[in-house]
Structures
1.
Amino acid sequence: MNMSRPSVHPVEAPPFTEGAANHGPRVRMKDVQGMPGTPGGLGLRLCQFVFAVVSLSVMASTSDFATATAFTYLVAAVGLQCLWSFLLAIVDIYALLVRRSLRNPRVVSFFTIGDGLTSTLTFASACASAGITVLIANDLNKCAINHCARFEAATAMAFMSWFATSPSFLMNFWALASHR
C-alpha cells in the first residue's frame, strides 16, 4: 500500500479499506461516443461527408445552379464540408487503428473551431437555398422551367449534413469546456 499522504496541508487522508487494494489505480473516464477518435465520431464524420457529397453532386449536376447566389454559396459551403469531414474521417480512422486518444486540448480546439465554422456555413447556405427554392416554387411558380426537385434534394442533403455536424461540434465543445 504505497499511497501518498498529505504533507503540506493538514487534510485528513481517507481511511484504507480492504476492498480498495483490489480495485487498482484509477483510470480516466472513457471517451464518449461521438467524440473524435471513437467509432461514433467516425460514423458522424462519414455521415457528414456522404450527405455533403450528395448535396454537392446533385446541385452541381444542374445547369442553372449558378443563376442564384444562394445555390453557388451552397456548393461552396458543402464543398468545404466535404473536404473537412473527409480529412477528419481519415484522422479518426488513424486514431482508431493505432488506438490513440484525440483528447489533446489543441487538437480538440482545432476540431471545435473547424466544426463550428463548417456547420455554421452549411446551415446558412442550406437556409438561403431553401428560401430561394421556396421563392422559385411557390411565389414565382417557375418549377416547370427550373430544377426545383433537384434544388430541394440538394438543400435537404445540406440540412442533413448540418444535422450530422452539430453533434460533433457540441461534443468537441463539451470536451474543450470540461478540460481543466
2.
Amino acid sequence: MAEAHQRRMQAEVEEMVQSLERDHIRKMQGRMFGCSADCCDRSSDSMSQVHQCIERCHTPLAKAQGLVTSELEKFQDRLTRCTMNCNDKAKDLFDSGAKEPAVRSLMDRCVGSCVDDHINLIPSMTRRLKENLESIAE
C-alpha cells in the first residue's frame, strides 16, 4: 500500500482503538483489578479459590481484548483482499502492454479507493465494537 494511504489508514484505526481503550477497555481493567484485589482480601479462601476468583475477574477483559483483536483482524483481511485485487489489476494492465506510469497511477487510485472504502467502514465497526464491549461489561 502506498505510504500516504497506509499512514492515513493507520491514523484512523489508531484513533478508533484509542477511543475504545479510553472509553471501555480502561474501565474494564479498573474493574478487573478491583475485583482481583477483592479476591486477595478473602483470607478464608484457599489458594485455589483465590486463583479461580482472580481468573473470573480477568474473563471479561480477556473477552473484550479478543473481540477487538478479532474485529481488527477481519478488517485487515478485507483491506488486504482489496489491495490484492489492485495488484491483480495492475499486473493485468502491465501484461497488456501498459507503461509503468499508467500502472502506478492505476495502483495508486485503486489502493486509495480501498483505503477510502475501509475508512468509511470504521464508524460502523466502532459502533459494533462499543455495543459488544458494553454487553461484556454488564
3.
Amino acid sequence: MDTLPETQRAWIVERKGVPSKALNLRSDWPIPSKLKPGDVLIMKILPNFAHTGRPLPAEQDLAGEIMDGNGTRFSTGDQVFGIIPVELSQVIRQGSLAQYVSMPADNLVIRPPHISPVEAAGIALVAETAYEGLVDIGKLEAGQTVLINGGSSAVGAYAIQIAKAKGAKVVATASGKNEDFVRKMGADEPS
C-alpha cells in the first residue's frame, strides 16, 4: 500500500442548520491509521448526501476504492459501494464527505463494473429505506397488495422492485409522465 497522508479534506457537520452554516470544509481531518479487525480503509470517489451529529464528517452513502483490505474479503484496488449507518457514523466519527474512511467491511459490496460510482453512491440508503419499510416494519408477504406512494422517487423505485420480488401486487402513485417508469420498475397498477 502506498504511504497515505496523515490528514485529509473533509466536510464536517459542526451544528444544526442549513449547509452554509452547519458545514465546515477542514483540511486537517485525520485519516484513520489504525484499522480494527474487519475494517477496511477506503479512498472515496463519491458520497451521497443526508445527516447530522456534530462535529463529524457528513453523509452515509459512498462508492470508492479499497486502499487497505486489512485481511478482509477485499483487496487493495477493489471498487466498492456501501453505507455508513448513522449510528456507526456517530461512534466512529466518520462520514462519506471525506477523502478517506475506515469502516466495517460488512457494510460494503463490490461495485459491479456496469454501475458507475455516481450510480452506486446513491443505492445503499434508499434501498435500505425501502427494504426496512416494506419488510422489517411492514412485514410484507407474498400475495399482499401494497401502495407505494411516490413510486417514481428513488425510494419508491426500490420499494416497487422489492415488493414484486416478495410476490406482492404493487399499486404505485406517480405523475402521468412517470407512469411508464413505474411500470418498468414492476408496478402492476400505476395511479
